[in-house]
Amino acid sequence: MQVHCICTHPLMRFPPSSSKFLRFSKHFHSLIAPSSSYSSPNFPCFILAATMSTDTLPNPSHTTTQRPVQVAKRLEKFKTTIFTQMSSLAIKHGAINLGQGFPNFDGPDFVKEAAIQAIRDGKNQYARGHGIPDLNLAIAERFKKDSGLVVDPEKEVTVTCGCTEAIAATILGLINPGDEVIVFAPFYDSYEATLSMAGANIKSITLRPPEFAVPIEELKSTISKNTRAIMINTPHNPTGKMFTREELDCIASLCIENDVLVFSDEVYDKLAFDMEHISPASLPGMFERTVTMNSLGKTFSLTGWKIGWAIAPPHLTWGVRQAHSFLTFANSTPMQWATAEALRAPESFYVELKRDYMEKRAILVEGLESVGFKVFPSRGTYFVVVDHTPFGLENDVAFCEYLIKEVGVVAIPVSVFYLNPEDGKNLVRFTFCKDEGTLKAAVKRMKEKLRK
Predict the structure, then answer these.
(1) Is residue 25's pLDDT more than 90?
(2) The pLDDT value given to residue 64
(3) Distance between CA 336 and CA 138 in Å, rounded?
(4) Mean pLDDT of all residues belonging to the chain
């Protein structure tokens, strides 16, 4: 029996109203599984092609027929994630993957050894729901160093399954159906999907190149007494923007005036290169209305461990923990012990981390500029956004397809991070969380094969 199986994640949006995105989904389906006998465009999420000998298997007692996938209406517009599609194509075409944001190098030995020791010490059963005490304490200690805020590790810190679950628990625990939530586009794809699951009314404000500055007047006209929360991601994925103190002060003032919450995704806080990272919770009057979310994975290059957390005052933590209890309840016990060890790393670790990533950023940015891209500033994260239009392709999806098939490099089309894909059709995202050899090899391919 031969089985070829590609499983992909159901939470990426390709708007049904956009024919080009339907064509995109169909096209990648045919590229990824050309041998599959099932070719319906409504079935991009799971592809199974199998051949088996009838001599070795009994006759089935029932006849199976192909059926359309079933999904709740609140999620039916979300399709296969762009990250899964692009990573699959990278393998198929032997392309260098500068698309998905996971490092191709390992995390620090002292953290891995701490996890191994925890396993050997028998710390392998269910952890306390909101986190083992030592990790909650380490998170509180780290937050005090970074923001100056003193939080209660027992009442104001909740350990989650990565920051994505912190986002989900925060939204599902604090947002009611019909609540208005403001997001800044482009945005991390889980925001819209989770807000849709919560039944939120999403209001999108677009950040535009080159600086991706917050349009303050538009924000003022959008926020109202009906607004329940604003989602902030700083440093910002996918653009590399960092919210300035002036922008955050304005957002804070509007939130206080209109009694609005802030959900602040800060997973790239240690990858702030050109300006100081500011946690919105640290601004006057904001801790009481802010949920701060973070994780281990980005800082320590251990994205597969999925240890995250949410910090919030007790009256907000209650809702977060209620949702968390019925999402994952508890998270990997030995990895929590190791995360506590990681968060107590000396400051020299973070200095070296930033220096290494700034060197990687320089290699990629200089390379992209030499190829002919218009490169926008990346002041944080490990992403760079560029304008692909000098190369004459119709849109970002077409360009990324060409880049994979003809050049052998993977980038991510940024239009998938907008409610209105047209807003991002000229932009693509590259990541530099790869070793220097990989970055230089990708630049070399683009210099040799990419033509205007």
Answers:
(1) no
(2) 66
(3) 10
(4) 88
Most confident segment among 8-17, 48-57, 303-312: 303-312
Are 69 and 45 within 8 A, CB to CB?
yes
| pTM recorded for the entire structure | 0.85
Q: How far apart are CA 52 and CA 447, in angstroms?
A: 46
Q: Specify the long-range contacts of residues 196-205, CB closer than 8 Å, at least 24 apart.
A: 196/74, 196/75, 196/77, 196/78, 197/74, 197/75, 197/168, 197/171, 197/172, 198/171, 198/172, 199/74, 199/175, 200/171, 200/175, 200/228, 202/419, 203/227, 204/418, 204/419, 204/420
Instruction: Compute the distance between CA of residue 331 and CA of residue 310 in angstroms, rounded to an integer.
Output: 14
Length of the chain: 452
Give the 3-state secondary structure of residue 74: helix
Residue carrying structure tokens 């990278």? 90
Instruction: State how far the Cα of 150 lies from the Cα of 133, in Å rounded to an integer.
Output: 16
Using CA atoms, how far apart are residues 286 and 148, in angstroms rounded to an integer? Answer: 13
Rounded to whole angstroms, the maximal C-alpha distance in the chain is 73
**Tokens linked to 75:** 């999620």
- Map tokens 């939204």 to a residue: 171
Q: How far apart are CA 61 and CA 59, in angstroms?
A: 6
Query: Residue 13 — very low, low, confident or very high, per pLDDT cuts 50/70/90?
Result: very low
Q: Give the residues across from 410 on adjacent strands.
A: 97
Alpha carbon distances (Å) from 261 to 25, 26, 107, 251, 258: 36, 39, 34, 10, 9
The tens digit of pLDDT for each residue in 143-194 reads: 999 999 999 999 999 999 999 999 999 999 999 999 999 999 999 999 999 9
365 residue type, one letter: V
- Model confidence band, residue 63 (pLDDT cutoffs 50, 70, 90): low
Alpha-carbon distance of 13 to 41, in angstroms, equals 14
Q: First CA to last CA across the chain, in angstroms?
A: 47
DSSP3 helix / strand / coil % (the chain, rounded to 5): 45, 15, 40
What distance in Å separates the CA atoms of residue 231 and residue 422, rounded to the nearest whole number?
22
pLDDT at position 415 over 60? yes
